[in-house]
Automatic annotation (TrEMBL):
Native species: Acinetobacter nectaris CIP 110549
One Pfam assignment: ThiS
Superkingdom: Bacteria
Signal sequence residues: none
InterPro entries with a match to the protein in the record: Beta-grasp_dom_sf (IPR012675), Mopterin_synth/thiamin_S_b (IPR016155), ThiS/MoaD-like (IPR003749)
Protein name, UniProt field: Molybdopterin synthase sulfur carrier subunit
Organism lineage string: Bacteria, Pseudomonadati, Pseudomonadota, Gammaproteobacteria, Moraxellales
Length: 83
């Protein structure tokens, strides 16, 4: 199966628990949940932050069931409380 590269950008509190530059190699067609699992295996302290973060590609918020078929930049956004 063909491999793709996913570059991870993190914002908010997620940024404090992941390296500033993070690239993940995964099989073409893997979903965001699988990528999140790979990250939490390597960076276990990130689990509480990643389970609540929003995921985006570009300016579009995407579902964790979204499958990636090409090299992508995946953005993790911490939840924001507002009033």
């Amino acid at each position: 199966m063909e491999k793709i590269t996913v570059i991870i950008e993190s914002y908010g509190m997620v940024k404090t628990v992941l390296p500033s530059t993070l690239k993940i190699r995964c099989a073409q067609g893997e979903d965001i949940n699988t990528i999140l699992d790979k990250i939490t295996e390597e960076y276990s302290n990130s689990a509480p932050f990643l389970e609540k973060c929003a995921c985006a590609i570009g300016e579009d918020i995407i579902s964790r069931e979204t499958k990636l078929y090409k090299d992508s930049t995946l953005v993790f956004l911490s939840p924001v409380a507002g009033g």
